[in-house]
Structures are given as structure tokens and as C-alpha cells.
Amino acid sequence: MAKVSFYLLPSDSAQERYLFACKLIEKSYRSGCFCYVLTDSAEQSRLLDDLLWTFRAGSFIPHQLYSGGLPAIEKVILIGSINPPGRWQNNLINLSSHCPGHFQQAGRILEILDASEATKAAGRERYRQYQQAGIDVITHKIDR
Question: Could you tell me the fold of the domain covering 3-141?
Fold first, then answer.
């Protein structure tokens, strides 16, 4: 059963939300976990793809956009707006406004919410869905 963690950011800045996601992606990569980052759109995926190249000087995180074809290398972070391939279902970072498809099969789901009303409302709905599925949810309030 999936483990779900919500990270609540103090700012309503989408940019800060993406930067926090980059930090979690980097932490995941450095610990040997190759996650899938679920977004709402190809545009959001590209934005995060670009940010991963620049968010921290000297940082290198192998990543690529996912559109359905398996990557040439296995140890890569995938970013996309469609359901992840099998191996990448284990660790999901959800930046989308909906629950990941087949979320019960994931090992770990990380949800990042900024303080904007739209993001919080969608996050509350996902929180309820996880609870209704019998999944314990952990919440981390991130201070400045």
C-alpha cells in the first residue's frame, strides 16, 4: 500500500513549489530512487524539465520528459502528464491537480501544495481520496 506525504508550503508562489519539487527530486535521485513526476500538462512538464537544469549550480539530475516510450537508460527521473511506466510507479511526486492513476500500486507518493486556494482545494480532495482508500497520510508543514 502506498505511503503518502503532503508538503505544505507557506507561500502561494508556483515557482517556490517547483523549486521545492526540484529539491525533493534531487534528494530522491541521490538516495537511489528514480521517481516519476506527475504534472497536469506538457507545458508544466517542460517548465520543470528546464528548472531541473538550473535550480542549483553544480547539480546534475538525469531526467527526461515522458510521453509513453520507455527511456533508453533506466536510472532517470521521468516527468510527464500521463500515468508512469511500471518501474517508475514506486516513487511519485505529484504536481498535478488530481490523484495519480492506480495510486494504490505506488510505493510512495509525495504531494507538494503551495498556499494558493486552487492548489489547496485540489490537495484537500486528493487527501480525502487517499484516506477513503485506507491510506495513512503524513503532513509536513514547511516553514520559511
Answer: Rossmann fold (3.40.50)
